[in-house]
């Protein structure tokens, strides 16, 4: 609970990445939440078993180090998820992972720092939960709307609705349009609330669109993507996003500029690899 607590924990747990690097290519940590990643080809059982063994060996060494340093791995809070396309997931035969004496079943959805990851990474569960919470708050605000000025209503909408739509919005890049349409309906309802338009009417979503008053969600996502692309070449903090784009190699007069082009395809998931995500708090 002290101000130095997070910093002291990072120093105390600094050996963690050294252990992980012996087994796995990548990992993320946020405070005491640790996540291990591993990509593998699901076409052969050998590749699947090799990936599972690497993950289990890494976890075993982490548990041994934590036990020696008097730290505790929360086995009951541990989850693992396999992310891939529908065709890739059909080939995977991994359903469990062993952590000490505990066997953890594969999850279809896991929570990751306030967002929800599903096995196909289309963010369906995350979007559904955001929409459910947003409409709950819109209902409450609508009950007192007649007592509010337009400015006050806008402040409440931004505080309770827009902040939820903005959180982790860069993860929405590549999400199917039918999923983004759910979030767009939330924006439409929020704009109607601010402008005192009927909450629902025949053909309301067809006749009214929030873009008259608020920018469309796809524009918000694209602006965030462009901002990360601008920072990526010189900022290690967004190096993960930099892996999604490649430098332009056109031999033109402006070839001295740092130009970036988007990767081919619409999905962030490789057509050849599945990814194991192991998370423990």
TrEMBL record:
It comes from the Eukaryota. This is Uncharacterized protein.
């Amino acid at each position: 609970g002290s101000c130095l607590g997070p910093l002291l924990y990072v120093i105390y747990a600094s050996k963690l990445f050294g252990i992980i690097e012996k087994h796995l290519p990548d990992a993320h940590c946020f405070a005491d939440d640790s996540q291990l990643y591993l990509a593998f080809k699901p076409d052969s059982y050998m590749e699947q078993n090799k990936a599972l063994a690497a993950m289990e060996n890494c976890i075993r060494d982490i548990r041994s180090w934590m036990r020696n340093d008097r730290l505790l791995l929360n086995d009951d809070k541990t989850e693992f998820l396999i992310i891939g396309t529908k065709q890739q997931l059909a080939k995977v035969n991994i359903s469990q992972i062993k952590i000490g004496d505990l066997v953890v079943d594969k999850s279809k959805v896991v929570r990751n720092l306030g967002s929800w990851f599903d096995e196909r990474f289309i963010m369906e569960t995350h979007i559904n939960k955001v929409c459910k919470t947003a409409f709950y708050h819109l209902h409450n605000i609508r009950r007192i709307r007649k007592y509010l000025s337009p400015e006050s209503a806008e402040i409440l909408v931004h505080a309770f609705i827009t902040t939820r739509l903005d959180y982790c919005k860069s993860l929405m890049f590549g999400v199917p349009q039918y999923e983004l349409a759910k979030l767009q309906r939330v924006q439409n309802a929020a704009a109607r609330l601010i402008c005192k338009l009927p909450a629902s009417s025949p053909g309301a979503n067809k006749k009214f669109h929030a873009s008259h008053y608020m920018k469309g969600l796809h524009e918000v996502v694209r602006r965030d993507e462009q901002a990360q692309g601008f920072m990526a070449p010189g900022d290690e903090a967004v190096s993960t996003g930099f892996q999604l784009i490649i430098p332009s190699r056109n031999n033109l007069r402006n070839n001295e500029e740092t130009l970036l082009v988007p990767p081919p395809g619409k999905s962030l998931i490789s057509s050849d690899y599945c990814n194991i995500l192991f998370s423990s708090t």
